[in-house]
Amino acid sequence: MEMENEDTALKQSILDVHITEAGYESGHSTIQSIRIQVYPGELVGIIGPNGAGKSTTIKTMLGLLEHAEYEIEIGGKGRYAYIPEQPVFYEYMTLWEHLDLAAAAYEMEEEDFVARAEELLVRFGMDHVRDDLPASFSKGMRQKMMLMIGFLASPDVYIVDEPFIGLDPRATKDFLQLLDDERRHGAGVLMSTHVLDTAERICDRFILIAAGRSAAEGTLEEIRAVAELPNASLFDCFDILTS
Ligand SMILES: Nc1ncnc2c1ncn2[C@@H]1O[C@H](COP(=O)(O)OP(=O)(O)OP(=O)(O)O)[C@@H](O)[C@H]1O
Questions:
Q1: What ipTM was estimated for this complex?
Q2: InterPro entries this protein is in (predicted)?
Q3: What is the pTM of this model?
Q4: Domain co-membership, 95 together with 131
């Protein structure tokens, strides 16, 4: 579902995060005043230099920071999937068992789980390793396992931390295709990434974080206006706005 910009103000966001401040120690905030809204069908990119606070923003949203003042609202059924950059897995469980465990956590019906899991295994070219242990997988295969777990229950919101680094071009294409399908059904996606040329191509809007604050946000056009660089790439705007 594509939306015009004018519409967004009228529609209800599917994800609304308002971080007043958050940090790793009390009395010392790492990020301040960050507002993120994602509308149904949108893909919003969080970008920013190393150490700017992107992961801290995501950790805050997930409720992982003890010292945080923030509010988060998720629309629809309130379901989200977090797809981490570093795969997390149980050493003695096969790929299929990981999917099964996730389905139990999402309280999926067995029939829905099996149909969706089979579809995802084929889509990611992982059907032949469904009964293997992830310890024997390559980095990209482990990352695909994380993506499959994320996509399993078709949540309302996807929070994806740097998905592009370990994936080959085919897997990247499959991943983006699946995200598009989910967005057409109204899901919202928030994605942090350093791969700015891909981000420029696929994201509807961007939130540029620098030194723990939102330095610019909006569509590429709006970011260009803030950077005073008409026609520039996202990379060039990023460079100007973070230097
Ligand atoms: N566990 C931690 N304990 C204390 N400080 C931390 C911790 N993790 C990150 N920081 C600090 O918080 C700041 C923001 O880091 P964060 O990991 O959010 O950046 P990032 O934008 O995700 O960077 P990158 O692109 O390198 O992943 C940095 O100054 C970092 O040193």
A1: 0.98
A2: AAA+_ATPase, ABC_transporter-like_ATP-bd, ABC_Transporter_VariousFunc, P-loop_NTPase
A3: 0.90
A4: yes
